Amino acid sequence: MLNLDMITDSVSSLALLLCLFIPLFLFIFRFLSISTLFPSKTSTPCPQSYPIIGNLPGLLRNRHRFHDWVADMLSQTPSSTLRARTFLDLSHGICTANPTNVEHLLHSNFPNYIKGSRFHDVLTELLGDGIFKVDAHLWTLQRKIASHEFNTTSLKRFISDTVASEISDRLIPYLSAACEENRAIDLQDVLQRFTFDNICQVAFGVNPECLTSDNIYQNLPSSKFVKAFDYAVEISSSRFLSPLPLLWKLGRFLNIGSEKRYREAIKVIDQYAMEIIRSKEQGEVTRKCQDLLSRFMFSTLNVEFQDEVHKRKFLRDIIISFILAGRDTTSTALTWFFWLISGHPRCASLIHEELSSVPEKRSGIFSYEELKKMHYLHAALTESMRLFPPVPINSRLTVADDVLPDGTHVGKGWFADYSAYAMGRMDKVWGEQCREYRPERWLGEDGAFMPLDQFRFPVFHGGPRICLGKEMAYVQMKSVAAALMYEFEIVAIDGGGSADKMMNPPYMLSLLLKMRGGLPVRLRRRHL
């Protein structure tokens, strides 16, 4: 959630700009009726747009329900595609929920749609030259190294074993204590802390121990890193969503306000990461080392770097990128899953039946092989992400003029966004029951899970940049969901995601679809 200092910085700067431009705004609004009477002649619809201020009024009016606003507009267009104009007409772009267009962006014309300057400007301090921010040869090198590692059986087993250990040693005891005390907990917060511990263990081989009592956690060396990482992600998110990027860029240039604190947070992250890298350099890194950092260090032994400083920077960037990708996305997906399941008791019952069918089971810890056979749980998680994707909207920058399959013109330098959130609500894609939570839509007649076209379900992206950690994410989500639902009945205090509540879901506007106000729940121990 954006903190008070960040809001104050933005409001003060915006107030100054408004005072300077009052005469200009009076002139603009005098001619608003002309803009309405003579809309832009384009085959692709554009939301109500005004000179200079573009689509800003609509954005401000619908900020609290931004993704549903976008979904509503896209659903009313002939090809599920819109044009957009930003404040001061600084940039143009399109947003689509058309699977054919998404395939074109992510696969068919992949070289023409890059991360580009938009990602670089916002994420350069946090991710450096990490895989999720760069293009061209830097992306190709990191993708090649990471792809090899993520396809190894040993890494899959390591991830599965690490998750199982964290669940049995930390998560279940933590939740059991809350259950015995009949204490309400914020499940979103618990899952965020758990997944941060887990991804750091997988990425660094180090556990920051977030999921522990607060008085112990505050004194741990890793607490500064975790707080700095949280703040850096928060500021990065606010940068992306700023209607006037000039404001935060000015703050960065002057090194004031939230941008000054952001720079300080990055220093803490760099120091923590570099200390771990140097400590591993002092030991012997072999193929037997399981964490991602050790694996990448071994894989780059034959890669030429300018010097050791550049090599450490390369390792730091790629590892921080994977922590960012694997931390909040998984916890966000699980939060919405438990909210939906709490509001759909029939689905919860079917999941528990599937878990209980595993022979000779005495605990909620399931093996990798057992999890692979849980088709209904897999479908229930996938259906949850269809409706509430952890990354609700994604963006690319257009290299050269292009025409999308639906006839939409995309100009050079335009942003090209695709909304996974909106796509999950398109009856053209999912039928008239698209807004309903129905895990069965993912199951065949034999009850087996049936994966669908990645461009109809771009939650893990698609094409050459498809998420390498997809299987890792499913292992973690299924492990956590299975363990918690086997051991406890999870009761959302607000009643959960019933059909009525799904019409106005409580999300906050951020890069990730986090739940506004968290997910307060109570736990009841199951008597097996």
From TrEMBL:
GO terms under biological process: lipid metabolic process
Protein name as annotated: Cytochrome P450 94A1-like
Q: Which Pfam families match?
A: p450 (PF00067)
User: Needs which cofactor?
Assistant: heme
Keyword Membrane part of the UniProt annotation? yes
The family database entries (InterPro entries) matched by this protein are listed as: Cyt_P450, Cyt_P450_CS, Cyt_P450_E_grp-I, Cyt_P450_sf
Q: Which UniProt keywords apply?
A: Heme, Iron, Membrane, Metal-binding, Monooxygenase, Oxidoreductase, Transmembrane, Transmembrane helix
Which terms does the record give in the GO molecular function aspect? Answer: heme binding; iron ion binding; monooxygenase activity; oxidoreductase activity, acting on paired donors, with incorporation or reduction of molecular oxygen
Listed binding positions for heme are C467
Please state which protein family the record places this protein in: Belongs to the cytochrome P450 family.
Kindly list the residue ranges recorded as spanning the membrane.
12-32
